[in-house]
Amino acid sequence: MTYIVNDNCIAFKHTDCVTVCPVGSFYEGESMLVNHPDECIDCGVCEPECPVDAIRPDSDPEAKDWVGFNRKYAKLWPIVIEQKPPLPGPDEMDGAVGKLETHFSEKPGGISEGQGRTMSLLVPISLITACTSACQSRIGAASATRQGI
After folding, report:
1. Which regions of the chain does DSSP assign to beta strands (E)?
2. Which of 71, 60, 79, 47 is nearest to 1 (CA)?
């Protein structure tokens, strides 16, 4: 399982999720963020941070189509690892239908001179503990499955 960003991020681009992500799996487009499904470790700390409920687990029936979308644009857009101001936009856009067709841009987000797809991580110890626990649970479950337990 992974977490994805859906079209409710469009026209807001809140980056609260970015500041709590322990692996830096968020990428920035001009009008929204995406979460790389192959880099996300499924810890879930980003989901409650989104003020517009645009982050959903891929197990959510409405999220299925967004996995490929997030993967595609994460490969094209620059990584974002620090909080930035959200886009200036009206609150009426929250939950608006058709934003993908009317407000989405394929253009990458702001890349500063000399910036690329590399990153450094400064992760709070509380997140490392949460991630370690999440990974140990997943590794244990996968190991038990392989051993037929």
Report:
1. 3-5, 26-28, 33-35, 55-57
2. 60
How far apart are the C-alpha atoms of 91 and 83, rounded to whole Å?
A: 20
The residue length of the chain stands at 149
Q: Give the integer Cα–Cα distance in Å for 75 and 84.
A: 21
**Domain formed by 3-146, architecture:** 2-Layer Sandwich (3.30)
Domain ranges (residues) in the chain: 3-146
**pLDDT-derived band at 112, boundaries 50, 70, 90:** very low
pTM of this structure: 0.71
Instruction: Say which amino acid occupies 9.
Output: C
Strands 55-57 and 33-35: unpaired
Query: Please, how many CA atoms are within 13 Å of residue 50, restricted to the half-sphere of its CB?
Result: 27
Helix%, strand%, coil% for the chain, nearest 5:
35, 10, 55
Q: Do 2 and 58 touch, CB atoms closer than 8 A?
A: yes
DSSP annotation of 84:
-
